[in-house]
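Quick log. Single chain, no ligands specified.
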Amino acid sequence: MPEGEKLYTGASVKIMSDEKISKKQERFAGKTAESALYPKPNSSFLGLRFKLWRYMAAGDTAESKFKKWMKRTGEAPVLIGNVKPMVTSSVIDAKLYNIGFFKTYTGYSIVEKKHTAKISYISNIHRPFMVKELIYAISDSAVSRVILSEKEKSLIKPGEDYSLEKLRNERNRIDALLKNNGYFYFDPDFMLFKSDTTESDKTVVFRLTLKDSVPSAGADGLPDQQCLY
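-> predicted structure:
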């Protein structure tokens, strides 16, 4: 172990909020925040780090076959100096943003012992933003007609918490629907969800449009039914 360094033994995340949030939302926020924790500490079993011990016992040179094997199958020590808690805090906030917690702040503290150190993160969150409405503003009537034909299958539902993953999946769902109706050269990136948030009641209204750069019918010389329009 390098002189002055301490072994990193892991991290924890605590979710705090001044607003009333459900236990389900709190658990989801905690699980999402924990997915951002990096790096992973050395593995252990019943409090013993066998792979770390094997790596350290092999020594710096590890000349014999046995010691080379110990080195290869062991784990190098994960040191507190290798952890960047400020970066991790930013990643936690970004992940929470993607599930509707738009204005969060994650702080941290380092808890040190004689030879080890761990990090405690605290994420201060608010009530997640909720979908109020999805407005379809597709300028092309034919494309709009296809999309609206399966409007009830939309993954974006009023009353549910904001989810970036659902927005991406909804774009892919609509893309597949259009391709099944002859728009073979349509692309999910042609679609744009514009959002309008209201802070007072933590809601967001989405407006689904097509980007201005979407190619028009016959632009590439193909039959109209094989183009976008």
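The two ends are 65 Å apart (CA to CA).
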